[in-house]
Amino acid sequence: MSDKIFRVNMTELTVSVEEVPQNWAGLGGRGLTSTIVAAEVPPTCHPLGPNNKLVFAPGLLSGTVAANSGRLSAGAKSPLTGTIKEANAGGTSAQLLARCGCKALIIEGQAKADSWYSLAVTPAGVAISEEKELIGKGNYEVVQTLSKRFESKRGVITIGPAGEMKMEAANISVMDPDGNLRSNGRGGLGAVMGSKRVKFISVDPQGGKVTIADPEAFKQANRAFAKALVDNPVSQTLGTYGTNVLVNVINEAGGLPTRNFTSGQFEGHDKISGETMHDLIEERGGVVKHNCHAGCVIQCSQIYNDANKQYKTSGFEYESIWALGADCCVEDLDDIAEADRLMDDLGIDSIETSVAMGVAMEAGVLPFGDGPGVCRILREEVAKGTALGRIIGNGAGSVGRAFGVTRVPVVKNQAIPAYDPRTVKGMAITYATTPMGADHTAGYAVATNILNVGGSVDPLSKDGQVELSRNLQIATAAIDSTGMCLFIAFAALDDPNCLPRLIDLINARFGINLTGDDVTNLGKTILKTERAFNQAAGFNNADDRLPEFFYNEPLPPHNLVVDFTGEEIDSFWNF
Amino acid sequence: MSDKIFRVNMTELTVSVEEVPQNWAGLGGRGLTSTIVAAEVPPTCHPLGPNNKLVFAPGLLSGTVAANSGRLSAGAKSPLTGTIKEANAGGTSAQLLARCGCKALIIEGQAKADSWYSLAVTPAGVAISEEKELIGKGNYEVVQTLSKRFESKRGVITIGPAGEMKMEAANISVMDPDGNLRSNGRGGLGAVMGSKRVKFISVDPQGGKVTIADPEAFKQANRAFAKALVDNPVSQTLGTYGTNVLVNVINEAGGLPTRNFTSGQFEGHDKISGETMHDLIEERGGVVKHNCHAGCVIQCSQIYNDANKQYKTSGFEYESIWALGADCCVEDLDDIAEADRLMDDLGIDSIETSVAMGVAMEAGVLPFGDGPGVCRILREEVAKGTALGRIIGNGAGSVGRAFGVTRVPVVKNQAIPAYDPRTVKGMAITYATTPMGADHTAGYAVATNILNVGGSVDPLSKDGQVELSRNLQIATAAIDSTGMCLFIAFAALDDPNCLPRLIDLINARFGINLTGDDVTNLGKTILKTERAFNQAAGFNNADDRLPEFFYNEPLPPHNLVVDFTGEEIDSFWNF
């Protein structure tokens, strides 16, 4: 059985299963979502109108036993940024969609506003049903209810109340192997799903499997690939402390944006660090090392319990903890965990929303450090869709405009995450140039600027940063197409045995002969496709800039500013 | 005494009086504000930060006895649109500033956030004082208090609470000869003044007068010019019914945007029409024909009294009445008048805010037709700066984003006024191309599309509209530089004796020899200067487009859409 395109038209409430056009055949994940969005979505359409399309695509290796291959890409025109957008998440659905023979699921049109629907994906295609019970419900209740409603174990892709209310920071959540939540976090794709009037999508492969062209070669390649991942020291650290190990590292480097990006170090860093969190998790009987999808050998996730040793949250990432911790000056990990859980349940991006809280604190909406206040706003304002809730739920740029704040850390209206571009200068280039709006995952220069992975480039100097970000963004666009978790990049950058084995895996899966150059070219093509969409939507080089304050306000303790000229930034695109 | 540039630095709290640079010498009004903003404001600066500048300039003829020469231009980078912005208003200050020898007043920098200030302009320059009493007060209280505080009669330029709160629709108000309010309405210039921490500016010429190079020629030209204005039939109609005479005219043409731009005709048009208003004003002992500045011979303003024959509002314009009436479906003129007064008092643009209310009605924030609800939101939300108040106070685009509405009538984030571009197609070109964001005054194609002034171009066809809008925008940019009210354009378009006499006036004032071509070239240069600023700020042709729904949703009763191609719109700039 060859993979197909599953298409749903929500205006007509019709479905179809289509052959894969030849020029989409070699694509998966981000490569495929971006190609489809660029081909089928009018770049100037309203992101929440009927002409936008929401596309899901498992990666090229999703559905196989390849290590770390369970990421699901979602793509559309973003209501937050107005650009093309891809966001990917773990959970079980990438693998199950692939096993349905679904190369991509395209949701187009727009149902009338008086009903909500669910989609059920099986190898036979998609069925549309009206949904009433779960409308208005949080993501935890959705996955729990559906786990009971369905007889067999299925994948679930859902939006929370934020997506239903079309908030621009709304995410899409994917059920993970434990029945908890992983998110296609950034860019408001949950609002696009809400605008289509789709509450959730279930995925049931009914025993279907993906076919491997050369099973023996695949097995061998996977063994070597997994070993490269497991042996990598950064992977091991991630397994022990989670991504939150970065709090102390980035604080030490002076690049931990604090108090709405007015300092690069946070006095309370020890209270929210990965090391502190590790000990607290062990003390409370949580799980330190935990996977977000089957086949993950890095296991950077964790189960964080509350003081009563009850489950509170998982997938508790550095960027969320930084945003509520350092950027909002909240020093209590339990407040941060409570907010993280609330955001997961509402279905709203924890980076965007937490940075928005930092801007709101600068505006005087609540005091810096007020963790309970953050939770109250999430519960009483965002969840209820009050006016303040909608201002916050539309992200940091929205809060800045609402309250006339001039220090608003966004690029293309998307919040800048946990690495200050004045001190980790490679990230200045990534934030400015990625077609996604400020996104650390698009080209994680932190690796080479701070972690000395893939060599070493001085974070405090602009020398070499454009080339670094360019190489990383090209590689990332390719990796995002495989279904692989981005954290394979640490091994890929340092272990010469890693990337070739990944290519072997793809070749063995499809019976083809990709080379390393082919993969690089794929990455370049994806970036250029995305940029062309943005340009047709009206973006130009002036949008590839950081906010004014990064150029004018030196950041303690290094007291540096962003000093890239426009020409230097634009030279990123010389490839 | 030759005119000078008065400059105030709010960061340093310093003032200076400077010679006029040679290349600014022949400029006034919009020509001068746009030239100064383009020369001195970094195009990518935050509009509410210290690098933006707020510039006031009387017109070339302001301060003289020339008919209708009392408009005051204000300019800056707009917080609403992000573009360069000029908005002009009547009132007494243009003439008084000119009589102070002030060619332009430039306010730069930014005072610290713990104090507010006022500026006092005299022929000697500017004095800065700390202000406490009037902070937080509405515009009516400001002008009433200042009329008592000052011994002599002065001009007053002020912001209301909306400007203090830096709302993006905040305007700047200018006291008129009766001590009431006129507004530099559009684009949020009041927020820029608020960001500088300047509450009000007083203007006292202390007996100063402008010098006329050739008084006899001036007098003769003015007599002929005023006669052309007085004799013009459109001017006469404006004097009788005010601008609100247009309700029935535009409704009949099917271009009266109704119920948030879903129809071109409003069933309740008779209840809010200029004819109805005229009778009601007479019945209640108001004033039908009234001037907003000394020397106006058209007198389109009026004094609108309430049912108890007490003053309610003045300068009660068609566009405001349309927006609350047809667009929000409010059929009670008294509700509309109350809202108009509230907006004047808050210091917020009545077009932007009322169109925002229409979008809020579509979002379900309040029902269509709920006039008292509009007043309640103005009083209890906008005035108090609540979250909802800030969403509304930031304009129609803000409301659309907050509530996920896709039918949002804005260009460059500024609300489209009272002429639907699907039915009055010349206005489609003006809205799309003017560097100001959607602004009917930038090139009032309604004149030739509907009123048969300056010839006749079929409003329902796109033929000839680009050329029409181009000619009008060039002429308007020039007229906006003279200090003249735009309503001289009706006579200028139809009476061959009008425009030459205006040029005679300028020549007699300065002892120069401008020709008609010089004036046309001035208009072209202004437009190109403004566009160059916008391009440097990041705008491009993609921003010169109307929202998607105008291309997709036919407007009853003519059931037309906007059908200009991008190339056709862009050909506007071929001059």
TrEMBL record, chains A, B:
- Residues in a coiled coil are none
Q: Which UniProt keywords apply?
A: 4Fe-4S, Iron, Iron-sulfur, Metal-binding, Oxidoreductase
Cofactor(s) it depends on: [4Fe-4S] cluster; tungstopterin
Q: Which GO terms describe its molecular function?
A: 4 iron, 4 sulfur cluster binding; electron transfer activity; metal ion binding; oxidoreductase activity, acting on the aldehyde or oxo group of donors, iron-sulfur protein as acceptor
Q: Which Gene3D superfamilies match?
A: Aldehyde Ferredoxin Oxidoreductase Protein, subunit A, domain 2 (1.10.569.10), Aldehyde Ferredoxin Oxidoreductase Protein, subunit A, domain 3 (1.10.599.10), Aldehyde ferredoxin oxidoreductase, N-terminal domain (3.60.9.10)
Q: Which InterPro entries match?
A: Ald_Fedxn_OxRdtase_dom2, Ald_Fedxn_OxRdtase_dom3, Ald_Fedxn_OxRdtase_N, Ald_Fedxn_OxRdtase_N_sf, OxRdtase_Ald_Fedxn_C, Tungsten_al_ferr_oxy-like_C, W-dependent_AOR
Record's SMART domains?
AFOR_N (SM00790)
Aldehyde ferredoxin oxidoreductase N-terminal domain spans which residues?
A: 1-209
Provide the family line: Belongs to the AOR/FOR family.
According to UniProt, the name of this protein is Aldehyde:ferredoxin oxidoreductase
- Output the lineage of the source organism: Bacteria, Pseudomonadati, Thermodesulfobacteriota, Desulfobulbia, Desulfobulbales
